[in-house]
Amino acid sequence: MRTFWNFNGGIKHIDSWQSGCWVQVTCPVDDDVRFLQDELGMPDYFLMDVADTDERARYDLDEGWLMIILRIPHLKSVSSRSPYTTIPLGIVIKDDKIITICHQETRMMLDFVNHQMRRAEGFTDAADLVFRIFLSASVWYLKYLKQVNSMIDKAKRDLDKHIDNKDLVNLSRLQDSLTYFGTSIRGNESLLSKLKFRLPVDELDAELIEDVNIEMNQARETTAIYINILSSTMDTYANIINNNMNTVMRLLTSLNMIIMFPTLITSMFGMNLINGMESWVGGFPIAIVLCILCTYLSLIWFRHKKWL
Q1: Could you point out which of 11, 179, 191, 251 has its C-alpha 20 to 30 Å from the C-alpha of 227?
Q2: Structure confidence by residue, pLDDT tens digits, 89-133
Q3: How far is CA 69 from the centre of its chain?
Q4: Within 10 A of 246 (CB to CB), how many other CB atoms are there?
Q5: Coil, strand, or helix at residue 168?
Q6: How many helices (H) and strands (E) does the chain have?
C-alpha cells in the first residue's frame, strides 16, 4: 500500500504522486514495486535490501539515489517468541523523490504521521524528514522500554510468589528483545553520525540532530540498564531454583536415612536365622521399641543439624 503526502506547510494527503511529495509505502505488493521501479526509477536491489529483516542500519549510494536503512522498534505480539523486535525502515531519496518503505505496519509510523499532522509545520526538506524519523524511532524505543520494564516487574512479582517456568520463559523472551534493541540502537547511532556529513544540514537540522543524539543515548543507556537487571534477575532465580533443589534433596536424603534404621532392625530380626527370640513372646515388641527409639533419636539428630 502506498500513500502520498504533501509536506509543505503541513502534512496533507494527496491522491497521486507529485514532485517533491513524500511517498510512504507500507507492506508493498507487486503493484507498489512496479510503481517504484518503473515510474520512479528506484534500483531494484534497494527493495530487496529493505525486505531483508536482518539488514543492518546503513546507507548506500547509486547513481544519485541515496538509500538509508534505519532499524525501528516493532511490537509483534506479547505472546510471541520475541515480543519486541526491530525491523528495517528504508528511506530512499533522489532529487524531488522522497520514499519510505517498510514491510510491516508499525505503530511508530502511524504515530509519526499523526504527530506531524498535529504539528502542522511539515518538513523543510528531505533531511528534515529523515532526522525527524530518527527522533521518532528513538522516542518509540523509550516507550517500548518502559513497557518491557513493566513486564519485568510483573514477572518478578509472580516469581516471588511462586517460581514458574512460564515466568522464567517470559523473562528470557524479554532478554532477547532487549538484545535486539541494544544492537539496533547502536547501529542507528553509527548511521546518524555518518549522515550528518552526507545530508545537507542547516542550523535547524543541527538542533534536531542534537535532540536525536540525546534520545538515542538515553535509549541505549536504558537498554543496557535493563539488560543488566534482567541478567541479574535470571541469575538470582537460577540460584534460588538450585537452592530449592538442594533443600529438597537434603530433606529426601534425611528421611531416607531415618527410615533406614528401622528397616535395618526389622531386616535383621526377620532373617531366617536363629537369634534366640523366635519363640519368645516379647521378641516382637522389643523389635518395635528398637525401631521407634532409633527413629526418634535419628530425628532429633537431624533436627539438631538443621537438616529437617
Answers
A1: 191
A2: 999 998 888 999 999 889 999 998 888 888 878 788 888 889 999
A3: 21
A4: 10
A5: helix
A6: 7, 7
